[in-house]
Amino acid sequence: MTSSRKLPIPTFIAVLVLLQRYSLAARVPTSTGTEGGIWPRTTVVLINEVNDLLTLHCQSKEDDLGIHVVPKGESWQFSFDPNFFSSTLYFCSFHWGGEEARYFDAYKQSRDLGYKRIPWLVRTTGVCIDGLGGFTCYPWH
């Protein structure tokens, strides 16, 4: 007599987490860099369009990417693999010319999943992205 046993939900979730972790650790080289996980590797580019030096500090819950100073007209970028649970979030603070810090979510998986490259134009009024239908801008918060 054979019995059919179903995998308990916590065990199933643990197996999925382990599979995701091992797929990220076992990245294979491709012509465009390294790929891993179930979502495409993503690069966020922050382009300084402020008429001053831009000091920025980006981080997620797990990774602090440090403080960077970007001259006008230049950019700084970072790359990562979005997580399995669709909850990856990188938030940044921006400072220039003695102004108060400004904040923006440079990558929010619920908004940005599927994009491999996200070029943000950092401006005094907010940040903008050149999408397929033209510019989309987000004011500072």
Number of DSSP-assigned strands: 11
CATH superfamily of the largest domain: Domain of unknown function DUF5300
> How far apart, in Å, are the first and last alpha carbons?
63 Å
**3D shape:** globular
Q: Which percent band covers the strand fraction? A: over 45%
Uncertain residue segments: 14-35
**Fold-level CATH name of the largest domain:** Immunoglobulin-like
Helix content: 10-25%
How can the largest sheet be summarized? 5 strands, mixed
User: Residue-averaged pLDDT, rounded?
Assistant: 79
* Spatial strand arrangement across the major sheet: 6-3-9-10-11
Q: Order of helices and strands, N to C?
A: HEEEEEEEEHEEE
**Secondary-structure content class:** mainly beta
